[in-house]
């Protein structure tokens, strides 16, 4: 049985006036259906490039990106994406913004069914009563909740989250972490999270992959123990502290500030 997502020996470089700029070098990743992986690493190491490859927006120079055992050769409507900047169309209401993918992705839903689907998701993330508001009338955290609903409204198999909470204040960010667990419980998906926040990574993901410095390869894989439903208290346990220490040390290695032989104190 094939994993939901499998990346084999992916190499990619961007063309620049001064020549090729290698970004990914033999990247490997495997994720089973329903899994949730967080990808961390130094700035500019190719994390966002990874999301473009999985979504089919870009093809690798070498290697393969596969979904359900099939090589990804172009964009797929089975993939949903949410970004750090929740771009919303100001001339549409929040409800209409969330429904937008259903106007683009082929489906057999009636207009009423599309609206019901969007309202269900907005209720799930706590935005009941804001359906008819314009994006400018919502806070940043509320817009990000709506963006998450928009990414999920067409029921994608894979959800890619590219630093969706990075621009939010600490309290709003932690609130959305808990919302994410609620959403995944009610709207199952296979997830890839790109983040710079190690606490976010261990709170949301089943597995954390550390990328090396550019050109990036898979440097380290941390499996996050399944301890049942997670709450913020989990981040203050000795187990969480140990995982964070390991990840911080791996990031230092990726940044060239520590060696693999050193032991994190």
From TrEMBL:
Please name one Pfam family that this protein belongs to. Answer: ABC_tran
Keyword Transport tagged = yes
Return the SMART domains for the record. Answer: AAA (SM00382)
- Domain ABC transporter positions: 5-238
User: Which InterPro entries does the annotation name?
Assistant: AAA+_ATPase (IPR003593), ABC_transporter-like_ATP-bd (IPR003439), ABC_transporter-like_CS (IPR017871), ABC_transporter_ATP-bind (IPR050166), P-loop_NTPase (IPR027417)
Keywords from UniProt, A to Z, are: ATP-binding, Nucleotide-binding, Transport
What does the record give under GO molecular function? Answer: ATP binding
In the record, the note on similarity to other proteins reads:
Belongs to the ABC transporter superfamily.
Q: What is this protein called?
A: Nitrate/sulfonate/bicarbonate ABC transporter ATP-binding protein
Q: Which organism is it from?
A: Sinisalibacter aestuarii
């Amino acid at each position: 049985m094939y994993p939901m997502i499998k990346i084999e020996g992916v190499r990619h470089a961007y063309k620049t006036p001064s020549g090729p700029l290698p970004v990914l070098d033999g990247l490997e990743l495997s994720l089973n259906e329903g899994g949730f992986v967080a990808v961390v690493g130094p700035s500019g190491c190719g994390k966002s490039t990874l999301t473009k490859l999985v979504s089919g927006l870009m093809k690798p120079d070498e290697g393969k990106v596969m979904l359900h055992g099939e090589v990804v050769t172009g964009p797929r409507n089975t993939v949903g994406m949410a970004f750090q900047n929740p771009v919303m169309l100001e001339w549409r209401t929040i409800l209409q913004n969330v429904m937008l993918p259903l106007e683009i992705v082929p489906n057999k839903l009636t207009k009423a069914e599309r609206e019901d689907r969007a309202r269900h998701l907005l209720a799930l993330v706590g935005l009941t009563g804001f359906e008819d508001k314009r994006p400018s009338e919502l806070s940043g955290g509320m817009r990000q909740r709506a963006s998450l609903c928009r990414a999920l409204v067409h029921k994608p198999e894979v959800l890619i989250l590219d630093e969706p909470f990075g621009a939010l204040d600490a309290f709003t960010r932690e609130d959305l972490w808990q919302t994410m667990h609620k959403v995944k419980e009610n709207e199952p998906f296979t997830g890839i999270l790109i983040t710079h926040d190690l606490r976010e990574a261990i709170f949301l993901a089943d597995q954390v992959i550390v990328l090396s410095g550019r050109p990036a390869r898979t440097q380290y894989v941390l499996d996050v123990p399944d301890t049942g439903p997670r709450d913020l208290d989990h981040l203050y346990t000795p187990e969480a502290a140990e995982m964070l220490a390991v990840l911080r040390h791996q990031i230092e290695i990726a940044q060239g500030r520590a060696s693999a032989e050193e032991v994190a104190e």
